[in-house]
Each structure stands twice: as structure tokens, then as C-alpha cells.
Amino acid sequence: MEGSSDVETELPARPESVALAREAVSAEAGRLGMARSNLDDLRTVVGEAFTNAVRYAYGADVEGRVTVVVSATEDILCLTVRDFGIGIFPHPERELPSLHMGLPIIGALSEEFRLTSRRGHGTELTVCMSMGEAS
Amino acid sequence: MAGFSLEQRELDAGYGEISVKGELDLAVAGRLDQAIEGVEKSCLGLVVGLGDCEFIDSTGIAVILRARSRFAEEGRRLVVCCPADQVERILDVTGLSEDGLVYESLDDAVEAMRSAGDN
After folding, report:
1. Which residue in A68, B19, B85, B100 could disulfide with B7, CB within 3.0 to 4.6 Å?
2. CATH of domain A7-130
3. What CATH number belongs to B5-98?
4. What are the tens digits of pLDDT across the range A28-52?
5. Which residues does chain A have within 8 Å of residue B65's beta carbon, measured at their own beta carbons?
């Protein structure tokens, strides 16, 4: 992205990493100038995207990794959440059954998103959001 | 990053409240699920207080909605109250603010459950 500043965060694919990812991306977005009014939506989007990776990318006994890359221009911030797991694949629900609201929430809060999955090689979700007007 | 905790108390007339404090996400949603399961057989209705909940995600919402369905199957109600900021935003985005789940205050939530019980 022209004029972008790319920052990458890598965390273990564990439930407790979700909050760390939210806070890391939110802090970076704030530093890049995202309006405070948009930061809550960003935290939600990061959480949903990272949660999907934690829940679905790896087998129960696999210690996987998830990366989050933030790129921004003056008007748009894009984040890419990438895992290196099995790709999107049917599987039984685990401890907490999902209502599959994650992607619809991401869609509602973002300008656009792109989902790419390659079986056996992982999934990449890129979400672009308005930087908003600085207060 | 806010810590997460749950506080449970009995209200009047057989109703109960579980207050959520902090950030309700994948890491802790199971704790809310267990807390609700622990009281759902013993109360006429339950309020999940979100006034001190600073963040909610789809896993937290799923726990609440599945619990609401369990309550409804037995003719009882589970409602939430007092959401603000990000929590209110997500309940709005998902359309849940307009389907009788969400009340602005604890008093409103209890009154709604009482009214439903009278009908």
C-alpha cells in the first residue's frame, strides 16, 4: 500500500492471545492516527479475525502461530490476520459452539474484507477500515 | 487490558443477576457459560449485567444467546442490561438491541421479566 507503515505482530494461536492482538493493533492504529471513535470497531474486528484463527486454523494438539500486519495510509487502515494452519475446512465444533457471527460482524464494521484460504497452508483475512476523522 | 470477573447475586422474587466485568472474549466466555449454567435451574429469570463489560465479541454473544434459548425452552427469560460503548455498538450491529434482549437499566430488565411472567 502506497504510503503505508507496516507493523507485524506474531502471537501463539491461543485464546489468551486474542486480547493481546486487540491491544497491540489498537495501540498501533492510534499511533498511526486512527480516530478514537473508530478504535473500538478496530478492536472488535481484530478480535473476531484472531478468534477465527485460534478456533479453526490448527488441530487441538498443534501449537500454531498467528500474525497480524497493520498497514495504513492517511485514510485507510488495513490489517491482515494470517495463520499457517489447515485452511478453511469443515470440522466439529469444540467447547463453545459458534453462531458464526464473526465474519458478518467484520463485514458490518469494515469498508471491505478479503478472505483467502489454501488447504493445508493457512488462511489470510485482510480487512480495510476507515481511519476516521481525528478529534 | 481489563481483567475479567463475574459477580453473581440474587434479586427479588426469584430473579438473579450475573454481572460481567472486563473483557468478554474467547478466553473467558466459557466462564460465563458455566456461571449461567450454575444458576439457571434455580432462578425464574436472569439478567446478565453488562454495565462494567468493556468489550464483547461473538463468542460472548453466542454464550448469551444460547443461554437465552435454554431459558426460553423452559418458559423463563434471560435478558441483558446496561451495555455501553463497544458492547452497545456490537449489540446494535448484530440487531440484538431490537429483539427484546437488551434493557437500559437493571430495573427495566427485571420489570420486563416480571411482566412476561405475569402473562
Report:
1. B19
2. 3.30.565.10
3. 3.30.750.24
4. 999 999 999 999 999 999 999 999 9
5. 99
